[in-house]
Design goal:
There is one protein chain. With 109 residues, this protein is an alpha+beta fold. The protein contains two helices and four strands. It has a four-stranded mixed β-sheet, covered by helices on one side. The longest helix is centred in the C-terminal third of the chain and has 34 residues. The protein is elongated.
Length: 109
């Protein structure tokens, strides 16, 4: 699994990199066919103070690309929300792919 973490208008510190990696490990535990993960952390220079920190992620799994984004006032909270969204998407994709193959095996017998 290739993990790329980049920042836009911010420096990705080792603590932030460790935090993102630990949150995204949950995805690889649920689904072992993750090929590539790209994370973009952004600080938006907006006039309003709310929802300035944004985290985006593209995940390439076998057969599909998944995307999620999250905005929050705190970057760590945005990463938490992003990990939850991606976890739901990966589990849903895993269930669909396993159900599909299971139905094909039933029809053969």
């Amino acid at each position: 699994m290739n993990l790329t973490i980049s920042g836009h208008h911010l420096e990705v510190t080792p603590a932030l990199r460790t935090y993102v990696t630990s949150k995204l490990d949950r995805i690889s535990r649920h689904f072992d066919q993750v090929v590539d993960i790209k994370v973009l952390l952004t600080v938006d220079k907006l006039k309003e103070k709310d929802l300035r920190q944004r985290a985006e992620c593209n995940i390439h799994v076998k057969g599909r690309d998944l995307f999620a984004e999250s905005s929050h006032a705190d970057l760590y909270a945005a990463v938490d929300e992003l990990a939850d969204k991606l976890d739901r998407q990966v589990l849903r994709y895993k269930d669909k792919s396993q159900d599909h193959h299971h139905e094909a095996a039933k029809r053969v017998m």
